[in-house]
Structures are given as structure tokens and as C-alpha cells.
Amino acid sequence: MKKLLIAAVLAVLVVLYVGYYEALEDGDIETIVFIKKHPTFQMKFYNIHANDGEIRQVERLTDEERKWIIDYCRYRLGIDTELKMQSDVEMCRKK
């Protein structure tokens, strides 16, 4: 019973603190695993900058893309942003 409890606690911690996103590297799709800066049940993230070389213009982002970047910035990089300026998008670009 004690081992089951420990396994359950570890599983919850992994879900809360481990995330991943997929990136195109050298023609192959790779899964990049990272430790989240803040706990959340979301495990899969989308790094909008991982697959293209250009920086997206903040005024051209869809609501969905804006949410993806905000989530990625917060949980992967520990940066809270509202993506109001182009510099906010560039700040969230680092890998």
C-alpha cells in the first residue's frame, strides 16, 4: 500500500512539473522535455518559434497562437506576459 501511494504521488508530481513540446530539428520531429516553472496539469505545450525562423508579428497572432505563447512563456520560461508588444513575443522566443 505504501509503494502504491508513493507511486501515485510521483505520478502527480510528474504531471504537474514536467512538460514537453515538439520541434523540427534537422528534418526530424523531436520531443523536447522540460521542467515547468509553475505547476499545471497541462503537459503538452506549443513553442510557436520552434519550427520556423521568423518572429511572428504580435498584431498578426490569432487568439489561439497568443494563448500558446503565453502558456509556453509562463510554464517553460517562467515569464508572465500579456503579449501586448513585439518585444514580448521576442522575449518568449528563447529555447
Q: If you had to describe this structure to a student in words, what would you say it looks like?
A:
With 95 residues, this protein is an alpha+beta fold. It has one domain. 39% of the residues lie in helices and 17% in strands. It has a two-stranded antiparallel ribbon with strand order 1-2. It is elongated.
Task: Please give a handful of descriptors for the protein shown.
95 residues; 17% strand
List the helices and strands and how they pair.
Blueprint (H helix, E strand, L loop, with lengths): L1 H16 E8 L2 E8 L27 H15 L8 H6 L4
Antiparallel strand pairs: 1-2
Quick take:
This protein has 95 residues and is of the alpha+beta class. Helix content is 39%, strand content 17%. It has three helices and two strands, in the order H-E-E-H-H.
Total helix count?
3
In total, the number of strands is 2
Distance between the termini: 41 Å
- What would the principal axes of the Cα set say about the shape? elongated
For the sheet with most strands, the description reads: 2 strands, antiparallel
Radius of gyration: 16 Å
